[in-house]
Specification:
- The mean pLDDT is 79.
- It is rod-shaped and about 80 Å long.
- By secondary structure, the chain is an all-alpha fold.
Length: 63
């Protein structure tokens, strides 16, 4: 019986670890989705890119 109990315990631990990994991934995915929807992520990069593009267009226009 001890071998059978050890096998069951190993399977339960493996399933528990798999479920934990999936739950952590889903929480991160949902948090990232809401952050991008609310505009928290990426605003500084977009602003910097727009400023660089504006400066390039202005400098080309002045020549």
């Amino acid at each position: 019986m001890k071998i059978y109990d050890k096998d069951i315990y190993r399977k339960q631990e493996g399933m528990k670890n798999t479920i934990i990994i999936i739950v952590v991934f889903l929480i991160g995915f949902i948090a990232g989705y809401f952050a991008s929807t609310l505009g928290i992520v990426g605003n500084s990069t977009n602003t910097l890119t727009n400023d660089i593009e504006t400066n390039i267009v202005q400098s080309v226009s002045l020549k």
